[in-house]
Amino acid sequence: MTLPHALGIFGAGIVAGTINTVVGSGTLFTFPVLLAFGYAPVTANVSNTVGLVPGSVSGAVGYRQELRGQTRRAIPLAAASVIGGIVGAILLLSLPPSAFKAIVPGFIAVALMLILVQPRISRALAARRTRGHERAGPVATTSIFASGVYGGYFGAAQGILLLAILGLSLEGEDLQRINALKVVLAGLVNLVAGVVFVFSAHVVWLVALLLAIGSSLGGVLGARYGRRLPPAALRALIVVVGITAIVRLL
Description:
mainly alpha
């Protein structure tokens, strides 16, 4: 691995850690970068998942104030996320690599659509701020499980899915507290999927290490400063790299 190669992956990790904390679509940045450096799609996805776990941890630490008082609602949602993440990771390893290469461009396209409509989702959720609910219901828990399956399999824009599910289920809750819970749930999915991959898949450890260091720094930056980023510029960047990934895969 050359120095520019390593610096590119490290920089992508910083960007992804920041994006994952603020919005939740960092994979749409790191995955195309790894493809551009010549890694096979499944190998890139596996190494990316393992590498982004520390970024979720640092992001959650940065949001610790907003996480206070959410333990009761978080436990069942965390369980659903963990189970879903394991199922998704097993699906990735069980299906042939050709299936992943065929399916993922569609996933990325859906993720890009979610990125583009995210402002409308946020406005709709803000309009529903009426009264708070202590826990999410069974429909929300099932939806969190489904998002976990998606996250364990690929995960791009899983955070936006989680924001929509939690925002519609926890009416009256502050959006920053919902975002904090999203960071934890998405991080758990990455963690359990990463554990499965460590024992059952080929992880490029230098790539994972560079992403881990970069995403940890990005998670801190996202929790501290990421809310100040111009949303339109951030979405435009994600859309560009997402389209690049689709072109690369096709």
